[in-house]
Amino acid sequence: xxxxxxxxxxxxxxxxxxxxxxxxxxxxxxxxxxxxxxxxxxxxxxxxxxxxxxxxxxxxxxxxxxxxxxxxxxxxxxxxxxxxxxxxxxxxxxxxxxxxxxxxxxxxxxxxxxxxxxxxxxxxxxxxxxxxxxxxxxxxxxxxxxxxxxxxxxxxxxxxxxxxxxxxxxxxxxxxxxxxxxxxxxxxxxxxxxxxxxxxxxxxxxxxxxxxxxxxxxxxxxxxxxxxxxxxxxxxxxxxxxxxxxxxxxxxxxxxxxxxxxxxxxxxxxxxxxxxxxxxxxxxxxxxxxxxxxxxxxxxxxxxxxxxxxxxxxxxxxxxxxxxxxxxxxxxxxxxxxxxxxxxxxxxxxxxxxxxxxxxxxxxxxxxxxxxxxxxxxxxxxxxxxxxxxxxxxxxxxxxxxxxxxxxxxxxxxxxxxxxxxxxxxxxxxxxxxxxxxxxxxxxxxxxxxxxxxxxxxxxxxxxxxxxxxxxxxxxxxxxxxxxxxxxxxxxxxxxxxxxxxxxxxxxxxxxxxxxxxxxxxxxxxxxxxxx
Length: 532
What we know:
The protein is mainly β. It is 0% helix and 43% strand.
């Protein structure tokens, strides 16, 4: 019913409605008698995110009519969710999923406003005596973790000046005087102790029975931990932003990567040289999304999603720009079982994206959740089904399930700080890189963007061998040499050289890539369109 100059009007629908059943005037190629994410018009949100609602099979116009409603297609909301966990005022709220009860399925935990909430995969609280889902009260400053001893599985969380170890027999609360906890706790897999970093620069190791000792002490607050191999860890203070470890440079290396407060990438103490300016880095993870045997450096930079190799060169289909602010962290898994790894993250208006390493958004995404979400999507095993849970900026914990089986081998980065130990480490041994036969593969020689509308473009090429030198000659259509660019020669890796086109005219140019590889010269030619 709507107001009009004739008073309130309640229309019956007309024969030009796209879901009108019966004689209609809608072209047969668009008529579906359905209001769905793929109908015309569609049920998507204003930002074109999927709300999972489909209304179909409208009956003929009558006094009493029928229709069908379904919720979910490729990805469906989990029954019992979303859960109200309140809007977190600290910005530290995160969701995490792991098997705390020992029932071979994940339980879901989220910290918010100094509480930890716990839920089973069916939406029921982990603690059946607390209907609100609160499993720890007063210990939710940072994301919780789990740890295992010979006899118990512990849920562990922090407050400003305390740590709690909770298991099936109860909980042990340990308090201290001095500096406050300044970062999430950290464990080295199946051990009975946990590390805590404090604002006074001290790192303390705690056990459930309060056996603790000082591990290290520095002059600044501890910001983040990361496990390294075989049995050590690294940490950063507030002089840096992010830290992560894994095999980045080679399949067998154990590398340390830091992003400092100037948004520079420092790999094993050496600054990575980038061809592009990034003024703000807001997330950092590692994952081998192109199956080359090494971890890609994945992060949000200036509201784009980047994936670089160890030499600072973008891999194919990156950066990904969605013309929206990316506010959350990133997790990585093959969520639709197509053998392509997908990056999950959230934009400022509450769109949960799944972006494949092939450059395509996964079918059914983005999915609408609440706005202002800063937490990382968490991958969960709920009754053997791969699911996604995330705490949103609207104060609710959302849960979605896919239609595929959970396979831990296809989950590369499960949640914020990687796993249930918050190890912040991704080391994968024994991965098999893709076999490439050509020395200078033609399908890996191209420039981006193309056409070139601004003042620069990047010429990319892959060297499948040991190259002594690489030159990129730019020619105009008449064959005249415009400039020669000196290229990098990173073996068995993508390389990239920047061409500044500010001094050339609009037109078509040839990029001639010449590489001396393993004693022979390889040449490939690409066309570059410059538009001004």
